[in-house]
Amino acid sequence: MVLLAASYNKNADKFPNSPKKDVILLDVSAKTASVKLVADEWIDYMHIVKLNGSWKIVHVLWQFNNAEQH
After folding, report:
1. Of 24, 30, 40, 59, which shows the fewest CB atoms inside 10 Å?
2. Nearest in space to 66 (alpha carbons), one of 36, 26, 39, 47
């Protein structure tokens, strides 16, 4: 994922002008949360934590929406 993210949009041609960004809070506690992001091409599941007043991503599990194409 890190390698793909570092090079994915180098030519600035991977995203539409108005990309789909649906964020669903699956579970939220005082300092932890599970979040689902449904974007144009992929789905992300994220675990996040609140540290020093700011939310930080700890873990991401993702796949392309059409897993059979990729």
Report:
1. 30
2. 39
